[in-house]
Amino acid sequence: MNAFDTHDVFNQATPFENVNLFACDPALIEALLREGGGAALQELDALGEKLGRAETYALARLANIHTPELQQFDRAGRRIDEVLFHPAWHALMDILVGAGAHASPWASPGPGAQVARAAAYLLVGQVENGTQCPVTMTYASVPALRQALELPQIAARWLPKILSRTYDPRSLPVEQKRGALVGMGMTEKQGGSDVRSNTTRAVPVPPDEARALFGDEAGGAWRIVGHKWFFSAPQCDAHLILAQAEEGGLSCFFLPRYLPDGSRNAIRVQRLKDKLGNRSNASSEVEFTNAYGWLVGQPGRGIPTILEMASHTRLDCVLGSTAILRAALTQALHHARQRAVFGKPLAEQPLMQNVLADLALESEAATAFALRLARCFDEKEDPQQAMLARVLTPAGKYWICKRGPGFGAEAMEVLGGTGYVEDAPLARLYRELPVNSIWEGSGNVMCLDVLRAFGKSPAARDALAAELALAGDADAAFAEYRTRLLSELDGPQTDEFGARQLSERIVLAVQAALLLRHAPPFIAQAFLQSRLVQAPGGAYGRLPAGTDCAAILARALREY
What we know:
Layout: H1 7-13, H2 26-35, H3 41-51, H4 54-65, E1 69-73, E2 79-84, H5 87-98, H6 104-107, H7 113-125, H8 132-145, H9 152-163, E3 182-185, E4 201-204, H10 207-214, E5 221-232, E6 238-245, E7 249-256, E8 267-272, E9 283-296, H11 302-338, E10 340-341, E11 344-345, H12 350-378, H13 383-415, H14 417-420, H15 426-432, H16 435-438, H17 443-456, H18 459-469, H19 476-488, H20 499-518, H21 521-533, H22 549-556
Parallel strand pairs: 3-6, 4-6
Antiparallel strand pairs: 1-2, 4-5, 5-9, 6-7, 7-9, 8-9, 10-11
């Protein structure tokens, strides 16, 4: 099926045609320049123009209507475990990989590389989200794989293909491919987030047997038996998994789909998950029936290896939710500007202005936070920035991802019944919003991780205090909020019962500090009054009297 056969239908659901998603978002541009990713400006401008086309919106919808299909056997009855995708999926993946969203900071490291990549991810996330899953996992896999440089079958064969900007969907041994993607498989049905309870086993293959199977370059092979309850995405060329090593305990292993001798690895895809959202992406359950893998890192050090990866995937959860907030806001704003009610545009009705401006504040604050967090990843050699990332990554994943579903529902309500039907993208965006809060550690896991960061080192409080101090003392409400928060962090953090509230307040404080330093006063003050002076509440449209809603809305979406 041609992706553009239904072009006219999809144009009806597209808010505007050929808009540059990058150029119409002043908050994103300002945050990008501020956080050091300005060198990528021209490339991001071109990406924003490509993503803003009506044809790209059409691809996003087609990829979610024509969901992946599992083909376990070929016509001769041989086990192949292939996942079939609509051409629209491949077209979208080609855009992502071509933009370097999967590996650009590793392929071209330098100041601002993580920030620039984060900005590209924010643009892509405004259009389609299922394709971001394999891109995120590939991005997060590189630091872990670099721990296995002594294994030539991983380092020499795989890293150049992973860093390539060529998307190659063919199911082939990696030597025959122009680019490669890496997935992950951590959770099991008996454990969920408690990966220490994993039952998958790994046994080392005797060296003589490994050489007989795979040749001289395939030393260090392990035989894997077990399962994974979530294995994403099964079409990837290799996966990183956790398994209990025969000696050493829980360890990380690299499992390629094709073995060094060109045969298929024994990774049996049992079924694809029937998910609420993220439907364009294939998530699966698998069994390992004497599959072969190679150790990444040291035996028994699987958890630290995975935590390094998880910090990057959790960054992408923050970015992904932030992108969907922006997309939902754009849809709501466009509708409200075009829709006339009682003789004037809906966007000029006072109560609707309150709702829309509140949504715009949430989106801008999330954008500022997300790119500031990305700069922490750029500067991880600085102990203070590394510690700040250690706190803000789980806190941000908790709060920003948790705010998403309510935001999506409110944006949908702006459109009314039009937003609730599948012809418009808001229904799909709404279904996408819960996933980032669930994957890579649920809300409670994140909040406990925040407590753990403060409990392990007083440097965590110092790093947060230094970041908040940059906003100064000129705003009395902010200074009081900061003082109360930091005083609570002076002692040991053992209050698990209140961990969610603490994580929320940390994120709000950082967002307020960023907006005070960098946003126009009408943005910063509206945010402070509605989030710090009063609690943010469970619904939008609670801005206090005197808020300059017209200025906030004019800033939120440039004329197109």
